[in-house]
Design brief:
The complex is a heterodimer. Chain A has three domains: 31-164 and 443-531, Dipeptide-binding Protein, domain 3 (Roll); 167-227 and 362-439, D-Maltodextrin-Binding Protein, domain 2; 233-355, Dipeptide-binding Protein, domain 1, CATH 3.90.76.10. Chain A contains 17 helices and 23 strands. Chain A has helices spanning 2-19, 42-57, 69-78, 99-103, 123-134, 138-152, 191-194, 223-229, 279-291, 298-301, 324-333, 339-342, 402-410, 425-430, 460-468, 472-479, 510-519; strands spanning 31-36, 62-67, 84-89, 158-164, 166-171, 175-176, 196-197, 203-208, 237-239, 245-247, 250-257, 260-265, 304-309, 314-319, 364-370, 374-379, 393-398, 416-417, 435-440, 445-450, 484-486, 523-524, 530-531. The model of chain A is unreliable at 1-22 (pLDDT under 50). Chain B is mainly alpha-helical. In chain B, 74% of the residues lie in helices and 0% in strands. Chain B has 13 helices and no strands. Classes of the chains: A alpha+beta, B mainly alpha. Chains A and B meet through helix 3, strand 17 and helix 13 of A and helix 2, helix 6 and helix 11 of B.
């Protein structure tokens, strides 16, 4: 109902100036599309020109401004000084829960620096957002999540341009049973546990151009730090390759009521230094994170009021408010740290690299990290999952760029790529019999966000028309070489459980775009420029 | 002016230049680079969380306070803690600098060791086919971009022939106690061959051409005619009389090259995944890691300034015609 009221309001606004006597129509202000530089990402750069071309055809004055990446982030998030921006969100596993992506349209997150820079405001949407976050029944929660997607789509505050497939490759003469995972590619936490050597070497060698910022679990703020650390720290829950939460260090996870969650640990787990892992360690870890200055996990920890060890192996989480994503997301992301090592460290964020403890309880044991060159882990033969692990260890070779990684893959120095290949490398890899190329759909997305505070994007009709005028099919076919999918809602189709396929689509249609504009009272002046 | 006053004056000038450069660097990075916490937004951090990180980095303090802290620390050889590595900058920079210098110095020694005598020899054979070919080769490698020559070398010697390693300083993993333990091995030498050759070929052109051209000028001087008149062998005239006098411009060029070498050849370091300072600087600027970027550039500047000073003093020994004035 609210959407209709909104659209009616927008229609009113467009009718009023028309009825005013002799008021000449004014040209629609020119717009600037900000995007990345060609060097940073040629796809987003070219994408901006595809959009600009069609918008000019509609009579809009458009400029494209490629900006250095961090400047772009600053203009978009910190200053909100933009008309329309092309950026992206990466599909991290914890974002498979709809909470995060739906939050990017939450009206209360429209402040400077927060996740809704476009400033979309829809009170009904915000209410549903709170409702889904409280709803423990997964079917009912899904219904709410579906309703939210249906609700916001006609307003198009953001256009999901496309989901880009992650194209990675591995050497099939050295390892087999390499199963890629959505959003993670091959460098998931499962591949090292599942890979089976077929050659002489029994250590899996991963190569990539990115390395951790540091391996301090209370300082690392990069995905690359955590992708590595999660191999030697256990979590209570792990997300399976099909993204189902499976109990891991926890034997059971039980919701006593909406705000109380009981966790029972597996018996007989040991830290890598031989000490037993207990409920005290779990309670300590959560308290330690909550008390620290480290803010990386804050959004996961926000619902936690207190954590107490209620027995040698049982822990109780008391939440301050019901939180549906807590059991899946927070418990699957927070590593369990050994109390006997960390309790003596007062300012963990200030540890220098040689002081950082690396004792975990995970399926692999930290071996070494030579900055800029090499990292390695050995398999933990005391771990409960040990029987399933075929490799003797995992090694990560750090290269300066994607070119170096690909050369190493071709020459057999590494077994798999940690990061996507460059477009030019894909056909080369496909032509090489020793290599298997894997294309993984992504649930992260590239988007164009409109600044709904500024003309012409403050008008729903204009946003709808300009969305019709985006040839996203061409972006996928030409820019991605077909390796991707045109976007619909903020929840990707590959995230099938939460994605709502029955929403308004805006397939490329210039006539529909013009029609939408005319209906809203726009017209064109003698020079073909859009006026209202 | 006595030699001592001259030295004191030059050292004072050098310190002044360093201070000016340090100041420019400090403000340039803060004005020119985006906020180092900007990238954390893509990790989903909200404004308060970002503010907390800024405070951790000391960026919440007034800029002038940050500036004086930076200066007083720099004087003591302290460059603070890297934002992204959370490790003391000094340690990172010195290690990377050593990796870069061993690569660059090897290449420079090779380039000048071959380039200077070769240039002298070409000037003697001026106008011949050898001369033309020499100039052509020198100019070609001087103008070919190193990422291209490097990639071609990797393609031929690494991928197609599988003869040479294509990346890194050593076969991974390796254990080494300190820098010399790392580089005084055959394995290191093996890994260094391709990148050193690529840089050396690039550098070869300068000493070769400068030497050749200066030699040609020197041939017209009276003392050469005098030497000929004395009936000295052509070889002695070339190497003992002419070459010595033609060395001065080459020495200047050498000093500048060594000074700039501290910054490394980013392109070569990237193509060969060499863990050098150039790559580190690139990363530091990309991630707005102010302490790391400042320290790297400051050390590069110190290198250039020191070497210039050194060369000025060396001149007076090499060429008595240069006096302290």
């Amino acid at each position: 109902m609210k959407t209709k009221a909104l659209r009616f309001g927008a229609a009113l606004a467009t009718v009023l100036p028309l009825s005013a006597p002799v008021l000449a129509q004014e040209r629609v202000p020119s717009v600037e599309i900000m995007t990345t530089t060609e060097a940073y990402d040629p796809i987003r750069y070219e994408g901006a020109f595809i959009v600009a071309e069609a918008w000019r055809e509609l009579g809009l004055d458009v400029t494209v401004s490629p900006l250095e990446f961090r400047t772009l982030l600053d203009r978009f998030y910190s200053e909100q000084d933009f008309d329309a921006v092309i950026l992206g969100w990466s599909g991290r596993v914890d974002r498979l829960d709809p909470q995060f992506f739906l939050g990017t349209l939450d009206g209360r997150q429209a402040g400077l620096g927060a996740n809704n820079p476009g400033g979309y405001q829809n009170p009904e949407y915000d209410e549903l957002y709170d409702a889904q976050s409280r709803e423990f029944d997964i079917e009912r929660r899904r219904d709410i999540v579906h309703e939210m997607q249906e609700l916001y789509m006609p307003d198009v505050p953001v256009v999901i341009l496309f989901h880009r497939d992650e194209v990675v490759a591995y050497n099939n003469t050295t390892f087999t049973n390499m199963n890629a995972m959505a959003g993670e590619g091959l460098y998931s936490e499962w591949v090292p546990m599942e890979a089976e050597p077929v050659g002489d070497r029994r250590t899996l060698r991963i190569g990539g151009p990115q390395e951790p910022d540091n391996v301090n679990p209370l300082a690392s703020t990069s995905v690359w730090g955590w992708k590595w650390m999660r191999l030697y720290y256990d979590r209570l829950v792990r997300l399976s390759p099909d993204v189902e939460p499976v109990p891991w260090a926890a034997e059971t996870v039980e919701a006593v009521d909406e705000v109380t969650i009981d966790v029972t640990l597996r018996e007989g787990m040991l830290w890598h230094d031989g000490e037993p892992m207990t409920a005290e360690d779990v309670a300590f870890t959560f308290d330690y994170y909550m008390a620290s200055e480290y803010s990386y996990f804050n959004s996961y920890l926000a619902p936690v009021a207190s954590v107490e060890a209620t027995g040698a192996l049982s822990v109780r989480f008391n939440l301050s408010e019901p939180s549906a994503p807590f059991a899946t997301i927070a418990l699957s992301q927070i590593p369990i740290l050994p109390k006997h090592i960390w309790e003596e460290i007062e300012n963990p964020g200030d540890l220098t690299p040689d002081q950082i403890p690396t004792v975990g309880s995970g399926p692999f044991v930290f071996d070494r990290y030579d900055r800029g060159e090499f990292m390695s882990l050995t398999t933990n033969r005391d771990h409960f999952h040990e029987g399933e692990i075929a490799v003797d260890g995992v090694e990560f070779v750090i290269y300066a760029d994607a070119e170096g990684v690909f050369t190493a893959l071709q020459t057999g120095q590494i077994d798999m790529t940690a990061w996507r290949m460059e477009p030019g490398q894909i056909p080369l890899a496909e032509g090489n019999d020793d290599l298997t190329v894997v294309s993984v759909p992504d649930f992260g997305y590239f988007h164009m966000t409109f600044n709904t505070r500024r003309a012409p994007f403050d008008d729903v009709a204009a946003r709808r028309a300009l969305t019709y005028a985006m040839d996203r099919g061409r972006m996928v076919n030409v820019l991605l070489d077909g390796r991707g999918e045109v976007g619909t809602t903020v929840i990707a189709p590959v995230n099938a459980f939460w994605h709502n396929p029955f929403v308004e689509r805006f397939d490329f249609d210039m006539d529909a775009a013009r029609q939408e504009l005319e209906n809203a009272g726009y017209s064109w002046d003698a020079e073909g420029r859009l006026v209202r | 002016m006595s030699r001592r006053t001259y030295l004191i004056k030059r050292v004072f000038q050098a310190i002044l230049s360093l201070w000016i450069i340090a100041t420019i660097l400090f403000f340039l990075f803060r004005m020119g680079l985006p906020d180092p916490t900007a990238a954390l937004i893509t990790e989903g951090l909200n404004p308060e969380q970002r503010e907390a990180v800024r405070a951790q980095f000391g960026l919440d303090q007034p800029v002038w306070q940050q500036y004086f802290l930076f200066l007083s620390n720099a004087v003591q050889g302290e460059f603070g803690t890297s934002f992204s590595y959370r490790a003391p900058v000094a340690g990172i920079v010195w290690e990377r600098l050593a990796n870069t210098m061993i690569l660059m110095l090897a290449a420079i020694v090779l380039a000048y060791g071959i380039g200077v005598p070769l240039g002298a020899w070409l000037s003697w054979r001026r106008g011949s086919r050898v001369d033309t070919a020499g100039i052509f080769v020198g100019l070609m490698f001087r103008s070919a971009p190193m990422f291209w020559t490097g990639m071609i070398a990797i393609l031929i010697f690494g991928v197609t022939l599988s003869l040479m390693p294509t990346s890194g300083m050593r076969t991974l993993p390796y254990d080494a106690v300190g820098f010399w333990d790392k580089v005084l091995t055959l394995d290191f030498l093996w890994h260094a061959v391709l990148p050193v050759m690529i840089v050396a070929l690039y550098y070869l052109g300068s000493p070769l051409l400068i030497m050749r051209n200066t030699m040609l000028e020197v041939y017209g001087e009276d003392f050469i005619e005098m030497a000929r008149a004395k009936g000295l062998p052509e070889r002695d005239i070339l190497y003992k009389h002419a070459a010595r006098n033609a060395l001065l411009p080459v020495v200047t060029q050498l000093a500048v090259t060594i000074g700039l070498a501290a910054g490394g050849q980013v392109v070569v370091e990237v193509v060969f995944s060499w863990p050098g300072l150039g790559r580190e600087i690139l990363n530091a600027v990309r991630t707005s890691d102010f302490p790391l970027a400042q320290a790297s550039f400051l050390i590069m500047a110190a290198f250039v300034i020191t070497l210039n000073l050194f060369v000025d003093i060396l001149y007076t020994t090499l060429d008595p015609r240069v006096s302290f004035r």
